[in-house]
Design a protein that fits this description.
385 residues; alpha/beta; Rossmann fold; 2 domains; six-stranded parallel β-sheet; 41% helix; 15% strand
């Protein structure tokens, strides 16, 4: 019998960022008897498909969004539709009140956690902003933390896309049996020439190029990377692709004036930056399982990442190097070593490309569906249920 799962992501689905993960995992077809139906508030025409349902009709969408009633309407539609499904699969953004109503319907609840437990994140970010001489500049409040703890109590299972996410919830007192270690992945259709193509050696007749992709912010350690790059003294360039947090512009203003540190606030085709880089560097302080790490490895880039930046995919000493984001000397040493070692970069990059081929979203989605089927079947047959 087919297990019917109603999944939902409240925000407008554009197949970018979190909505890209959501749509990639909740596919219309998987290898096991699990059927995903994706309820979204609304979506781009290019992501419409057989299992995507829009909660807000196109005719009234501008009015609903103008009133900022899109979340409330999507949650209401979700509760109305849930009676036709076997399980609820909730992505970030659902109100605690709605999760309680889902629980009252007696449906198993699966919750996706994109990042670490908010209490952990709040502590990490407070400490780093203080270290930089800034006041806390993040939206997490004590109430946010308490609400998430309540959500974990209501959930039957919580997907954790990396060991670090899982550890953060364990430390918060969430029972281990609720925490399902998973991963994210990458989409070959975005880069169709890469999956079965071994990475060629990078050109050596240009400056050694380090690439960072993502919001250029304190949470992702952009300031730590600039510091390590400048201290390395290499003749190269550092490219930062992504919107910049004002705090970074403030504390890194001298470094950002350097001609060899280049900020690209908007990138139309990120693949060209991956292809033209020699090293991907990502010293994130807090992450779930960053998509950019999967994509960089798919492009055959050696990796220099923090434990958080490595997610569930990077292997230390095989695909690159995993070092604490605060171990400045180690980052400087590895940057210098890789800048001087094209053969080592090529070998690490080949390993990274082969590793990434095991994390395409088709494979990851099938693994996720198998986990759902296995755990919900076990729960249904458990004497305690």
């Amino acid at each position: 019998m087919m297990l019917r799962v109603l999944s939902s992501y409240l925000t407008y689905a554009s197949n970018r960022a979190i909505s890209h993960i959501f749509l990639s995992l909740c596919r219309p077809e998987v290898e096991v008897p699990v059927q995903f139906t994706c309820l979204v508030s609304s979506c781009d025409p290019n992501v419409e498909r057989s299992n995507v349902v829009k909660a807000i009709p196109n005719l009234i969408r501008p009015f609903v969004f103008r009133l900022r009633a899109n979340d409330a309407m999507t949650e209401w539609r979700y509760l109305q539709a849930l009676k036709h499904f076997d399980a609820a699969y909730l992505w970030p953004g659902f109100s605690l009140a709605t999760i309680r109503k889902v629980k009252s319907k007696g449906k198993p609840i699966l919750i996706e956690r994109i990042n670490c437990f908010t209490g952990f994140t709040k502590s990490v970010m407070n400490n780093e902003y203080i270290r930089l001489g800034l006041g806390p500049r993040h939206p997490t409040t004590d109430q946010t933390v308490q609400d998430e703890l309540e959500e974990t109590k209501l959930a039957d299972f919580i997907f954790c896309p990396s060991p670090h996410v899982r550890s953060s919830f364990l430390d918060a007192g969430v029972p281990a049996e609720k925490l399902l270690l998973s991963s994210y992945g990458w989409c070959p259709s975005r880069f169709p020439d890469l999956l079965h193509q071994s990475p060629a050696p990078k050109a050596v007749d240009r400056p050694f190029t380090i690439l960072f992709v993502g919001t250029v912010c304190v949470r992702k350690g952009a300031h730590l990377l600039m510091d390590a790059y400048v201290r390395s003294g290499i003749k190269g360039k550092l490219i930062l692709c992504g919107e910049m947090e004002p705090a970074i512009a403030e504390v890194c203003q001298d470094w950002l004036r350097r001609p060899d540190i280049i900020h690209q606030p908007y990138v139309n085709n990120i693949s060209t930056f991956y292809q033209d880089a020699d090293l991907f560097a990502f010293p994130s302080l807090e992450e779930g399982s960053p998509l950019v790490s999967y994509e960089a490895m798919a492009h055959g880039l050696p990796m220099l990442v923090s434990p958080m930046g490595g997610g569930e995919i990077v292997r230390d000493g095989v695909d690159g190097f995993i070092r604490s984001e605060f171990d400045r000397d180690a980052w400087v040493e590895i940057i210098q070593k890789l800048a001087a070692s094209p053969d080592l970069r090529h070998q690490l990059g080949r390993n990274a490309s082969q590793r990434a081929a095991e994390f395409t979203y088709e494979k990851v989605a099938n693994q996720r569906a198998r986990m759902i089927l296995e755990h919900l079947t076990d729960s249904a047959t458990s004497p305690s249920v």
